[in-house]
Amino acid sequence: MAMKIRLARGGSKKRPFYRIVASDSRMPRDGRYVEKLGTYNPLLPKDSEERVKMDMERVQYWLDQGAQPTDRISRFLEAAGVLEKKERANLKKGEPGQKAKDRVEEKEAKAQAAKEAAEEAANAPAEEAPAEEDAPAEAPAEEAAAEEEKAAE
Question: At 8, which helix (H) or strand (E)?
């Protein structure tokens, strides 16, 4: 008899609640099980003590008997420190899709064009700097004339 430690769903519609059970692998997910080992309530916050509860002695007993934990249960056991962490290779998941890659390329092209335009703008005013120095000299004279007119009024 191939034993599994797995989740059996309970709870109502859109309000999941799971029992952690040891059952024969041939039985249906929510069907007959040999022993209830704990509970899992995914609606509670991740840091809540009540989210995952397990009778560790019984879980260890079933593991020693050769019961295979499902992926979700093995993650719970890894978090509890009972099992050593497995290396999971989901290489495709971290890779962005084609549209995302296209958007990144477009963004880089725009950034490069903006950078080139900024460099051209930075280089152009450097040559016209002497002409700009003359303009501020005239500005104070105009301001003084405007102040004299206000004073006369």
Answer: strand 3-12
